[in-house]
TrEMBL record, chain A:
Record protein name field: Sugar ABC transporter permease
Primary location: membrane
InterPro entries: MetI-like, MetI-like_sf
ABC transmembrane type-1 domain mapped to chain residues: 69-280
PROSITE patterns xref list: ABC_TM1
Source lineage: Bacteria, Pseudomonadati, Pseudomonadota, Alphaproteobacteria, Hyphomicrobiales
Annotated TM spans: 12-35, 73-94, 106-123, 154-178, 212-232, 263-284
Entry similarity comment: Belongs to the binding-protein-dependent transport system permease family.
TrEMBL record, chain B:
Gene3D superfamilies named among the record's database cross-references: MetI-like
UniProt keyword Membrane present: yes
Entry protein name: Mannitol ABC transporter permease
Record's subcellular location: Cell membrane
InterPro entries, A to Z: BP-dep_ABC_trans_perm, MetI-like, MetI-like_sf
Length: 290, 276
């Protein structure tokens, strides 16, 4: 029973966290909005002037923006598709009676714990190097011409690296969901003569619908801001081929020192992320009530 | 009832699972092997898998030439510091929301979650400028602070879902017996909350250790944790593979061990309790 005293206590325990998060959210965001209306270059200090929506016009009509938006969408879409399409069969396989399943689990989950800079550099050098990389050697075994990953298909190379990092996440969540699937339901279906395929389509897949949605939303939030993998492998290049929105904003802010248009770009990124966040928050919120 | 498992099914799925598991793990294994090769062998075509001259000199060189332990210490301080501070702020908040919920608790939780959705790049410019004017660029305290705030929503959420599972009856009983809130906290809640606290701590350590947006943008040398340190290997083409591998192996080994222990909680933490 909540007395007035415990209510007061509860509120004062909550205040520091709420206050800090509020400041953390509001102050930088307000500054970003403010900067986005200024002509503001770090190379030319003291020349700040109000330019209204000029930065947005500049950022949104910059060919680099369209290119980076496209790269972002391709990157997010491909990684989502790959992690889910590979994650489902992998999770199904690991849900089978496998000897030493715990050890297999450890191997599958491992890439998720590798820091982004390490996985990007190991893939770029040890695996994808056009002469000395392992892939080049494998290709030559089969008499194929090795692919020069970061020159010929740079975006695909980044996609593969990021997929390797996120496949464990998708697999682990789908596996967790599979293990909570009612065995008796599946057995009943099998006894009624349902084939493995129809058991999968009519029982397993509907059960996976929610975890798949969760995987899509959470991965999207992280994938929209992939940064370190691009930073250490391609630096956004060649040209703009691997520049995503996050990297474009970074380079406008900390390479070209154009605070104004980087801020405008930052707000564009916030808007895109919010669209995704809206759906995720709704799903999680529904779960809170259950 | 356990599923009937025919021998053939077990054999096929075991071979399949081990094959794909090994395939996914292979890049890490390959990196660890490269760290024990000489630079020449690491670069050699065709590559040697096990029959090379095993050496540990790369590990020594990484420490001598680039002061590896300085960066490892930075990682420990930044990940550990931000995690501890986040826990100190989050424990009272989560406790309060789990045990004295109000009408607004759900809204507050969802709002906290939404702050995590903000792309860091959206606030890169102001944070960078604020840090610049306060002399916080390339400082450990600056990184502790920002990683703490960045992970605070996840920490509160995880703790909240764990605290929620502590049975109410026990609290009622303690209150009936005249326990004050302080005693209730120390003798009843804490022992029951320790497993949840431990997994939250672990997951947050992992996230902070691997964080590579703020660390890359806000640190260069003095405060550079391992993420930034490893990134410095990106410039020279090819020639330092064995040393890169040695530094990388050292950088991921502790977190890999922690991660393997916390994989169950990982699902729960990263999905904000939506999948358990």
């Amino acid at each position: 029973m909540a007395t007035r005293q415990t209510q007061f206590l509860a509120r004062s325990l909550l205040t520091p966290a709420v206050g800090l998060l509020f400041i953390w959210m509001i102050v930088p965001l307000a500054l970003t909005i403010y900067f986005s209306t200024l002509h503001y270059s770090l190379l030319d200090p003291g020349s700040e002037s109000f330019v209204g929506l000029e930065n947005f016009r500049y950022f949104l009509t910059d060919p680099a923006f369209l290119a980076s938006l496209q790269n972002t969408l391709v990157l997010v879409g491909s990684v989502l598709a790959l992690t889910i399409l590979l994650g489902i069969p992998l999770a199904l396989l690991m849900d089978q009676p496998v000897i030493g399943r715990n050890f297999v689990r450890l191997m599958v989950i491992a890439p998720f714990f590798v820091m982004p800079t390490v996985s990007a550099l190991v893939w770029k050098n040890l695996l994808m190097h056009p002469v000395s990389g392992l892939f080049a050697w494998l290709a030559s075994l089969f008499g194929l011409t090795p692919i020069d990953w970061f020159n010929d298909v740079p975006l695909l190379a980044v996609i593969l690296i990021v997929t390797w990092q996120w496949l464990p996440f998708a697999t682990l969540i789908l596996l967790t969901a599979l293990q909570s699937l009612d065995e008796e339901q599946k057995e009943a279906a099998e006894m009624d003569g349902a084939s493995a395929v129809s058991t999968f389509i009519y029982i397993t897949l509907p059960h996976l619908a929610r975890p798949i949605t969760v995987v899509i939303l959470i991965e999207t939030i992280f994938l929209l801001t992939v940064f370190a993998e691009i930073f250490v492998t391609t630096g956004g290049g060649p040209g703009l081929q691997t520049t995503n929105i996050a990297f474009l904003i970074y380079s406008q802010a900390l390479i070209q020192f154009d605070v104004g248009s980087a801020s405008a770009g930052g707000l564009v990124a916030v808007v895109i992320a919010n669209v995704v966040a809206f759906f995720l928050v709704r799903i999680v919120g529904r779960n809170l009530e259950a | 009832m356990a599923r009937m498992a025919t021998t053939r099914r077990v054999v096929v799925s075991t071979i399949g699972a081990w094959f794909f598991g090994f395939l996914i793990f292979f890049p890490i294994l390959w990196m660890v092997l490269a760290s024990f090769k000489t630079e020449l062998e690491a670069f050699a075509v065709p590559p040697s898998f096990l029959l090379f001259h095993w050496t540990t000199e790369n590990y020594a060189t990484v420490q001598e030439r680039s002061d590896y332990f300085h960066h490892a210490m930075n990682s420990i301080i930044i990940a550990g510091g931000s995690t501890l501070i986040a826990l100190l702020i989050a424990i009272p908040a989560a406790w309060s929301m789990a045990f004295s919920p109000t009408k607004r608790t759900k809204d507050i939780l969802l709002w906290m979650l939404s702050t995590k959705m903000m792309p860091p790049v959206g606030v890169l410019v102001p944070i960078y400028l604020i840090y610049k004017s306060f002399g916080l660029l390339d400082s450990r305290i600056g990184l502790v602070f920002i990683l703490c705030l960045g992970n605070l929503p996840i920490v509160i959420w995880m703790l909240f879902t764990y605290f929620k599972e502590i049975p109410r009856d026990i609290l009622e009983a303690a209150r009936m017996d005249g326990a004050t809130i302080g005693r209730e906290l120390v003798y009843v809640l804490t022992p029951m909350a320790i497993p949840g606290l431990a997994s939250t701590l672990l997951l947050n350590l992992i996230l902070a250790w691997n964080e590579a947006f703020w660390t890359l943008n806000l640190s260069t040398s003095n405060a550079a944790p391992l993420t930034t340190f490893i990134a410095s290997y990106s410039s020279p083409e090819g020639l330092f593979w064995a040393k890169l591998s040695a530094a990388s192996t050292l950088a991921i080994a502790p977190i890999l061990v922690l991660g393997w222990f916390s994989q169950k909680q990982l699902v729960r933490g990263l999905t904000f309790g939506a999948v358990k």
